[in-house]
Design brief:
147 residues; mainly alpha; 4 helices; 84% helix
């Protein structure tokens, strides 16, 4: 599980950096001056992806998080963030190209699905983290009483 969390953090870091470069260069090549979803895609990848997975990695190292729970969290969170990030990159690209489909309501729909999956996964994360924290507290209280 720790390797999966580390790989996810690294992948989102890479996607965040690449999408930031893509945003800058793609808008420059197309001489686009307006607002686009590309401007926020890289921050979503870096903050919701890389930083979140690094935080979960640290918590998984400190607390005894069940392997199955951690794997399911990583899978669902990656899918949710993938939907959100993917919709942002596609919509932003279409905005730069000034194609009418960029204003379709389907893009916020895809991003919204991703955000809902992320939100649900965060609830799941806090539930299994709460169990791990309680177990760790109980273990420490038992060790203190025995000493």
């Amino acid at each position: 599980m720790l390797n999966r969390l580390f790989f996810s953090a690294g992948t989102w870091a890479g996607l965040g950096l690449i999408s930031g470069l893509y945003w800058r260069e793609f808008t420059k090549i197309n001489e686009f001056e307006g607002q686009t979803m590309l401007s926020t895609a890289h921050t979503h990848a870096l903050s919701l992806g890389m930083l979140m997975f690094l935080a979960v990695l640290a918590l998984a190292k400190v607390f005894s998080i069940p392997e199955k729970s951690g794997k399911l969290f990583a899978l669902l969170y990656n899918i949710g963030l993938g939907f959100t990030f993917g919709a942002m990159v596609v919509k932003g690209t279409l905005q730069v190209l000034e194609l009418p489909i960029a204003e379709s309501k389907m893009w916020p729909g895809f991003a919204g699905l991703g955000h809902m999956l992320i939100a649900g996964t965060l609830v799941y994360f806090f539930l299994f983290l709460m169990k791990a924290v309680k177990a760790e507290s109980a273990k420490r209280e038992t060790a203190t009483v025995e000493a």
